[in-house]
Amino acid sequence: MRIGYGYDSHRFEEGRRLVLGGVEFPGETGLKGHSDADALIHALIDALLGAAALGDVGSHFPDDDPRWKDADSSQLLESVVREIRGLGYAIGNVDATVICERPKLRPCVELIRDRLSAVMGIGKGRISIKGKSNERLDDIGAGLGIAVHAVALLEQLKN
Ligand code: MG
Asked: Does the N terminus or the C terminus of the chain have fewer Cβ atoms within 10 A?
């Protein structure tokens, strides 16, 4: 078994749509980024790649590459999962904590788990998503952006 850890943060930017875990939050301010800036998926990708010692989201999908401009991060996650499976790993589970003052994540957690279950091709019971406020501390607490921590466990099925 192998464990991986991922972290991502993005600042809010007016005029962009907010997408977290592949789910759109209508009416909420979006995040600045080269792709769709889905910080939750980026942290999950880094956790998965980290567990397999395969680098990170930036080395796989450079943010100066026009191919990934406004990219749908769900598709990036799908391709990382495919790569990891191709190396003989199965995803044991993933667990992520999304830290922001808004939006409130809890009402959308089940929707996000359903979406990630479909994208990653694993059961919903293997996916945990938690939302937390930063209790108004630091820049995240001041509502400037969103930070996400994630861990992933991989099981090696073959060498
Ligand atoms: Mg990112």
From this structure: C
Check if the beta carbon of residue 97 is closer than 8 Å to that of residue 133: no
pTM > 0.90: yes
54 close to 104: Cβ distance less than 8 angstroms: no
Whole-number Å distance, alpha carbon 42 to ligand 1 midpoint, is: 5
CA dist., res. 97 & res. 5, Å (int): 12
CA of 88 to the centre of ligand 1 (A): 26
Question: Any idea what the CATH number is for the domain that residue 56 is in?
Answer: 3.30.1330.50
Gap from CA of 158 to ligand 1 centroid (Å): 31
Range of the domain at 55: 2-156
Q: Which residue has the tokens 């790569």?
A: 83
Q: DSSP letters along 3-58, please? A: EEEEEEEEEEEEEEEEEETTEEEEEEEEE--SS---HHHHHHHHHHHHHTT---HH
Alpha helices in 32-126 (DSSP H): 39-51, 57-60, 73-86, 109-120
- Count the domains in the chain: 1
Q: What is the pLDDT confidence band of residue 159, given thresholds at 50, 70 and 90?
A: low
